[in-house]
Amino acid sequence: MVDGMSLRERFNxxxxxxxxxRVPCWFFGTWPETKERWRQxxxxxxxxxxxxxxxxxxxxxxxxxxxLWDAQGLANPFPLTDDKPTVLEETDDYRIVRDxxxxxxxxxxxxxxxxxHLEYPLKPTRQSWDAMRRCLDPHDPRRRAPKWRKKAxxxxxxxxxxxxxxxxxxxxxxxxxxxxxxxxxxYDDPGLLEEMLEYLSDFYMTLYGPxxxxxxxxFVYLFEDCCFNTGPLLSPARRCPTAATRTTTGWx
Length: 252
Known about the structure:
alpha+beta; 3 domains
């Protein structure tokens, strides 16, 4: 409690345009090496060097990103497979791994870095999408934590802010397919892209439907990452054809 208000109360005050003594203090996105350099330069109050979250100084509020990706431990929204990662090549500088979905990724061993995708698991074909879709069954019992309702009830008594990754209709398909292949798919096979997005929309609604009334998250995080420094990676003017534009001979 600070100034008689919990972090959650201050967050809700700010979001509802109600005056408060101070706004929540968060910082997002820091390489572990950056925090180590800060420590070497005299910043001795960094709590943890692990992960890429903010500096985590004692005077800052609890990190809002904690628990984001698995709905605070209640649900797994990512593709599930029984396959294991396989190391294809390894040197002192890097490791090349075939991930459980079939993609091939090169990881640097010289420090934190964005991995290089040598092969994406999802190809712009219906056969490949059918295989990926089998890994996205919202009814798979592995998607829910044991006794998740009990944990949800405990979350209701919190004083800190929590969120969850509510959906990704561009960010995750881009991770699975790559920007180039995803961009071309909108033109080469818009029907397949529409089917993918419709399925993902239903997937998220089915997965989170039972959870949302039990918790009351403070806000929802939509993971898209759909822009570069020169503008969006997809055109706002470009829309996938809908069922209304279909003809008996194809797409009008």
